[in-house]
Amino acid sequence: MSKTCQETGFTASQQAKWPLTHSSLTNSLEKSQVIPDSVNEQLSKDILELTSEQEISKKLSERRDGIINHLKRRFDSKFRGSKLTTFGSSESGLGLKNGDVDLCLEFNGEKPKKVLNKIARMLRDDGMEDVTLISHAKVPIVKFIDQRSKIPIDISINNSLAIYNTKLLRSYNDCDSRVRPFILAIKHWALHRGICNAAFGTFSSYAWTFIALQSLQTTNPPVVPNIQKHGKRSMKIIEGTEYDLTMSEEPKKLLKENNSQSVGELLSNFFESFALNWPWDENVLSIRSGENISRSSKKWEQQKPSIIEAVIDDKNVRLGKHSLPVEDPFDTMHDLSRVLRPEGAMDIREEFLRAFKILTEGGDWKKLTETKFPELVNDSANTDLFEDLRIMPAQDVKDMLEDLQSELSVLESEIEIRNNERKNAIEMSKALRKNAELQREENKIANTLKPRRAKIEQVKKQRDEVNNNYIPVHWIENELSKVFKRLTEDVDLMRTPSLQKEIELFSWFFELQSMHEHSKKTREFHNEFKKLLREQKNALFELENVKESGTEVNLFGDFANFDDLAHKLLLEMNPMHTEKRKLKREIGRLEAWIRISSKKGGQKTRHNNRSNKKNYSKRRNNVNVAEVKSRAASGGALSLSDLDTLLNSGGISSISNGQQNGTSKKKKKSKKKNFSPHRGNRGRSKKGM
Ligand code: UTP
Ligand code: MG
């Protein structure tokens, strides 16, 4: 039985998924509610608390600097003359603590995609985690997680516009102390409610920043001005397109009136205005204009299908352009709603209505930002390489290590099998390729045999026809010269030849001449005949050779089959190599932790919370070490773990030094020690930075 709404076309499950949006579309939504002042006060407190929680600790900031400096050094040597710049929220100050670090490599030596490919390869070789090349995005990037600090990083190439919009956002942030908490609150809310993920069809956090800023520009009186409106126009051509990059030098001076609303009030107003006056029916959000502008003036009418049409169409269609238009401040042809999908756009509307409803009902920040999809929220970034291991019993870590080692050895032997198979396939392909070449050669030689045989027969016949009784030419020539000599020598009057004799000599001479003619022809034909015979013999010999060097691999088929097999095996091995690298890294990490924890005396108890962990290690340093030392000094009984503690706190020789000495030595040791299992000196010392 269908429960599709006649008015909206929503199915029952769509009505359940977006109840408030559905009510607003059927005009049955209660809109007369107001948000109580008490809620705003509490909101302000909660937002300020959130903001202070988002302060970057010194440790995290050092880690960020560490990885950025490390990458600078790597790129310096790989891409000579390149420049690495930080942009995005870590630079504008409008980011949540666990946000990514956005880096732009300015380099013109090669095509950006080629550079990104090289970077991805380099990062994989360096052991970075989850290295992903997103090459088809508007701005192609390489995403990865630094294996040591666990900080997510995005790298793009020559992304100059992003550097300018970061500067603009920094400037907005500097305008008023409420900008940062206000934007962080909206980003936090959007993130936890599952509507801040461009990859999943909702707004990017960059887009939310502008949605939030527009609200601060349009509240009465405004909290921030329009920074792009005043000042000498600054035009710049980037990648062939001219952009107006004007930004006011002194934006604060642009505000005529002071807005004194609390950040809680500002946020309530934000939700209220979107819930009650959905701006996108008629307008485009435009920071550059300082206010919403009409869709018609921007020529950004909603293209078909609209959000509702797309949602009720069960063919999972793509949303028409300009569904919830937000104009990029510099790239004004770029609508940040381009990434939205029908369901994502519906979720956004529902969340605004939900937020307003919660606030009017006196609900709090916690309820407002209740996490909808925990898997999309990285709230407690694993910023310590050993974070998870610290709370694990040592035996569990060892078991895990053993499992991984055996997994690795299975994987390695699987890779080896494939590798050998691939080598064999390549060998086979080579052999078959050579055979094919030889076959061609054989055919070529064989093709010359038949015509040559015919030619031999023909020449032989010609030779025999010219002179069947073959007299050697040299004999005829000899005879000719003798007769010629006798006929032309001086006549001895005493021995004059008879006429008869002279006639005989002359006729013999002419006969010899004719014989010579024939014999010369015969000799030519004979030589030709001999040459052809020789050629035929050589060809046969060559043919024999070619046949001998061919192998019997033809039985196995075509070389192309083996090329395909080799390629298939290579493709199969690629993810295996990635898995192998991952396993090796994890094994390295576990081994390092086992080494460290055994040196430190190990963490043998299960502790789930950070402060407990701190207390625990404090207890070990201050109480156990001193107590063990004094027991050892007084000759008391020592257990194996006592001995372990003793050895790790200066050894037997430190016993007489007393308790204080023991503690100070321990401190020194922990300062000196670097627990990283990885190569390089990144993050070890700041001297080089
Ligand atoms: P991010 O998505 O990382 O946003 O884009 P963000 O502002 O740094 O926010 P979080 O804290 O990480 O979530 C990084 C930068 O890329 C540029 C902007 O400079 C943005 O700050 N960018 C992003 C664009 O220029 N256009 C876009 O459509 C998206
Ligand atoms: Mg970012």
Polypeptide structure, described:
With 689 residues, this protein is an alpha+beta fold. α3 (37-53) packs across α10, α10 crosses α13 (342-360) and α20 (610-633) packs across α21 (640-647). The chain is built from 22 helices and 10 strands. Bound molecules: uridine 5'-triphosphate and magnesium ion. The site of magnesium ion has 5 residues, from loops. The site of uridine 5'-triphosphate (UTP) has 17 residues, from α7 and α9.
Question: What descriptors fit this protein?
Answer:
689 residues, alpha+beta, Poly(a)-polymerase, middle domain, 3 domains, three-stranded mixed β-sheet, 10 strands, 57% helix, binds uridine 5'-triphosphate
Instruction: List segments where confidence is low: pLDDT < 50 over at least 5 consecutive residues.
Output: 602-623, 656-681, 683-689
DSSP E strands, number: 10
Q: Which CATH architecture of the largest domain would you pick? A: Orthogonal Bundle
Shape: elongated
Helix count, per DSSP? 22
| Amount of helix | 55-70%
Strand content bin: 5-15%
Number of domains as seen in the coordinates: 3
| CATH fold label of the largest domain | Poly(a)-polymerase, middle domain
